[in-house]
Amino acid sequence: MRRLLLRLLICACVVIASFFVSLDIVDYFNATSGTNCAAGASCCPNGQANDLSPPFSQLEGYAYKVSIPQLSGVADTERGLFSPTVVCEDEPSAKTVRALGAAHTPIVEITQKGGGRFIHYNDTVFFSSSDNTDPNSNGRRYRIVIPSPTGWRCRGFAFLLAFC
Questions:
Q1: Do residues 96 and 34 lie in contact, with contact meaning Cβ atoms separated by under 8 Å?
Q2: Cα distances (Å, whole numbers) of residue 24 to 17, 39, 64, 102, 155
Q3: Measured torsion, CA atoms of residues 137, 140, 146, 151, in degrees rounded to the nearest 10
Q4: pTM of the entire structure?
Q5: Weakest-pLDDT range from 15-24, 108-117, 141-150
Q6: Which of 51, 56, 68, 74 is positioned for an S-S bond with 64, CB 3.0–4.6 A?
């Protein structure tokens, strides 16, 4: 009987932890492009924001880069993907702010396809504007945001350790 209760408790912990880890994964890979934003509404998350100031260095194709050494500690690296950052594009004439996406895109894909794709890698942000125009001259402002933690839930394995 004791073994059965222990197994049920372990299974319940695994199911609950899996649920919260799944929520984290969905948040992590959220590639909202801002296309569902109402006019005048901001689709950029709240959090620690840093302006990306021109001039942006153009790579090939649609890709541009800018250095942000102050955020290198939260960037994607060779060890894996873990940057929580979101690049936002502000269009003053339309009074809209949209989150660009998809995040964590390989630089080759940003170069070839553009469309607001980006990656925050080491101390550099590689990105393209949402419509593949030159961000140095399109009249938009860009910023990178580390979203504020949402809600009451813990992050993945931290939840598992705290709950079980």
A1: yes
A2: 11, 29, 29, 16, 7
A3: -160
A4: 0.69
A5: 15-24
A6: 56
pLDDT value at position 24? Answer: 62
In a domain, 26, yes or no: no
Residue 22 lies in a domain: no
Total domain count, the chain:
1
Containing structural domain, residue 146? 32-150
CA max distance for the chain? 71
What is the rounded CA–CA span in Å between residue 79 and residue 56?
Answer: 26
The answer to whether residue 156 sits within a structural domain is: no
**Which pair of structure tokens corresponds to residue 78?**
């060779």
Q: Which sign, positive or negative, has the C-alpha torsion 58, 59, 64, 69?
A: negative
CA angle at 57 for the pair 53 and 63, rounded to the nearest 5°:
105
Question: Could you tell me the two tokens for 30?
Answer: 């959220």
Alpha-carbon distance 105 to 120, whole Å?
Answer: 9
CA distance 40 to 149: 24
Give 67's strand partners.
Answer: 124
Q: Angle at which helices 2-28 and 156-163 pack, to 10 degrees?
A: 160
Exposure of 76 in the CB half-sphere (CA atoms within 13 A): 18
Residue type for 95, please? K
8 Å CB contact between 97 and 90 = yes
Average pLDDT on 82-95 reads: 86
Tokens of 120: 């925050």
